[in-house]
Amino acid sequence: MSDHSSNQSNENSHQESMLPQWMYWVFAALLIWGGAYLMRYSGGFSGEVYDESTVTYGPVKGGAAAVEDPKVLGARVYKANCAQCHQLTGLGVEGQYPPLAGSEFVLGSEAHVIRILLHGLVGPITVNGKPYNGNMAPWKDVLDDKKISQVLTYIRSDWGNNASAITPEMVAAVRKEEAARSASWTEKELEAAPKVLPK
Amino acid sequence: MNGSKDVQLEGYGDENLDRSLQGPLSLLFVCSALWLVVSSLLGAVAFWQLKFPGLIDFKAGIQTPYVGWFFDFIHQALNYGRAVAATKSVMIYGWLLQGFLGVAIWLTGRLTKKMICKTGNYFLLGAIALWNIGVLVGLMGVFSGEASGFSGFDFPKYAAAILFTAYAFIGLGMGMRFAKKSCSVPTPSEWYLIGAIFWFPWFFGVAYYFVFCKVVFGVMPALVHAWYIGGLEVLVLGSLAISILYYLVPSILGLALNRVHSAKSAFWFFAFLGAWSGVRHLVGGPLPAWMISSSVVAGVLLLIPGTIIANNQMVPLWSNWCKVKSTPVLWYLATGGVSLLVWISLEAMMSLRGVSAALRFSYFEMGVSAVFEYAFLSMVLFGSIYAILPTLTGKELPCCVKCCSKCQFWWGFCGVITFFTGTFFAGTFMGLGINFAPMAFVATTNLASPFFWLSVAGGIMVLLANLIFVKNVVATVLSACCESNKEGCCS
Amino acid sequence: MNGYGRLFVGILFAFVFSWAALILVPLNQVGNLMPLEDQTSGDLNPPALSGLAKRGSQVYAANGCASCHTQQVRSESGGSDIARQWGARQTVARDYLYHSNPNLGSMRLGPDLANLGVERPDLNVNAGPKKKYDAAGLHQLFYAPRSIKGSSHPSYSFLYEKREIKGANAEVSLILPVGFETEEGKEVVPSEDAKALVAYLLSLNRMYALPEAPVKP
């Protein structure tokens, strides 16, 4: 019967499992090979070099720049900020959060929809003939003009919606005009506000 | 204890400690052995369809309503694609991972010398049952057409969640016992064991999040999947196998446990390189070159720890060859130790871009995964289970089991070599054929044909070995159960 | 911190290092790609997948098609894919922008499908006139693969329904060759899954040029 402590003096395994010296040279050669391979075939660690035989020193040049699709970017903003209430389907929650799909507010005046997003909206509202009563937070301090324009372009184009795109300039114009405003909109106030975009 | 045992393991542990795990681990080993057979049978069904593609397409002939429905289901569930996915997943989660978790639980007991309390034992039983339910649910999910399509991670979302929950109990139990340990110098066996305990949930969790939660699109899920498979193969399954090798080999040979040369540097090489090595499975794929290149380098450099680890195991075995010859358990462990190095070398060779141009996407990959799954992991697992079972029951393995375990070894050993030889030639010819553009694609499979039958022969031998194994495990567990029931009246 | 604490930190670091380098950095490099506008035609590349094709991608994954077919074209130095006219250039991350599972595959018991929706040479002779797969051809391959010479494709007849003919041309029924027809008065129609799968396969087209993967003239 073997016992742990009595075997501490047994040096067999220690002595015999030594690797021969030349193995360490092989290991060193492998490490050097690894470094060389990485230098040669890493494509400069760029995300745009797919063919490993490309020799790159410095950033890759040439080719068309990526086109920013506001709908794709807007969908990301929407998923991160809006989908909790208005849902990924854009159908909202009955009685609480109005739908965006087919909504006359979303598809209607560009100025109105920008105003709602900038300052939020409180109190009862009727969308597509159904009453809703939720609180929408203002987004003017959270999202910049570009992101607001992207998300608005997105909600105006998904779920069967088909309205014109919103540009960051439009958002900036409305933001400037309503700079003095701090309170959220109500449905009544919104009706009174001008429907056309400020120049 | 009687002194005539050929596997003397009780010196390092506490007899009661091992005995306390008898219930849960017997269940676990029986289940995993059964999954092994299920997986080999599924593999056989899949493999035959390569030659006889219409093998299970009964639909045309059968019109009777209920019988027709049954055959229709067989056709759907066992059609090549689904059968392959099922084979791979059952092999990994049903047999390998489950078996090695059992070994890890036993080893945790041995290394921490901490007994599991009665409640803990019930939790463990429950977790093992849950794990097997997870595998079963996942298998049914794959059969009914809900597989995720990521090879090795095929189980649908809900089954993966069940497996994760079951592991949480098992892993937490093992982690807690290590946390309570006061001794401050971990042994080589413990490095790998503790590593695997933590790596598995981390890798699995990240893969689950990226593959199932649909947060990313495009190549990212494929990249995460390759990275996960690398982590699972090397850092989880590989670590567990190496951990038990570092424990069993010296303790069966009666040598010092923790006097092994350069094992520590080997471990850190292994940990850092292993975590990087998964993406090499995507050589030539739609990923920026540096991701694949760095993974290729990591995979090749794995040769360094691989050599050291194999050397640590093989040198003591070689110098005690007489003992090895008379101890079947050591046959398995020695085969596993050598196969580890063979597998690392094969993978390193395959990942080189020039070689991969020809050999990737051919039967050769099947051969390499057979070396990994069978010659390395399964062999170590067979040996460990044969070594662990007597400590659980407190009795020697029944004579017939001992005899059959030798027989099983030779069938399995020859089987996996034959299978690999078959796929090696089939894969090389097929790969070279595909890579030779003037040759018609359809003709490339004909090149592989003669060697295909060699693989079939190897597969049948492996299946036979697996059947012997499940018979052995069940017989051992049953005989222990019967005797403990009888003990009351006999003694 | 004792030996176990240090061991844990090392284990954690080994994981985090690889996670940061092989998941986080790639997420930044290829996780947020955009479609690109072709300067001459004004098309956005890659084109978006239709809803039906997206569903077909799931059918493809669930039936393990990836265990025989790849969907990746390797560079000219990386294999014979381009020489076999399976694609005009190496596939890159942007090509899979709209796919939730890119189905890259790891075996080629069957041909690569990255450009199945484009005309290609016949597999049996690997030369001759190029041919484009159409829905009828694919349905025939899935329902009755034995009717196609030289094919060892498994049958997916469970994705189809055999039923009494209801009305004239009520639905697209399969056109089956001589020797494989159904009984008199019956027709074979594809299920929703089969239609989705075929729509997905026919949508596979990566022949457009991208700045990171130019097509050689």
Task: Please explain how this structure is put together.
The complex is a heterotrimer of chains A (199), B (491) and C (217). Chain A has 199 residues and is mostly helical. Chain A folds into two domains: 2-45; 70-192, Cytochrome c-like domain (Cytochrome Bc1 Complex, Chain D, domain 2, Orthogonal Bundle). Helix content of chain A is 42%, strand content 3%. Chain A is built from nine helices and two strands. A two-stranded antiparallel ribbon of chain A has the order 1-2. Chain A is elongated. Mean pLDDT of chain A is 79; it is low at 1-15 and 58-63. In chain B, α4 (80-112) runs antiparallel to α5 (118-143), α15 packs antiparallel against α16 (399-435) and α16 (399-435) packs antiparallel against α17 (441-490). Residues 1-8 of chain B have low confidence and may be disordered. Chain B has helices spanning 15-20, 22-51, 65-78, 80-112, 118-143, 157-179, 188-212, 220-253, 263-276, 289-301, 303-319, 321-326, 328-351, 353-359, 364-393, 399-435, 441-490. With 217 residues, chain C is mainly alpha-helical. In chain C, strands 1-2 form a two-stranded antiparallel sheet. Chain C has a two-stranded antiparallel sheet with strand order 3-4. Classes of the chains: A mainly alpha (199), B mainly alpha (491), C mainly alpha (217). Chains B and C meet through α3, α4, α7, α8 and α9 of B and α1 and α2 of C.
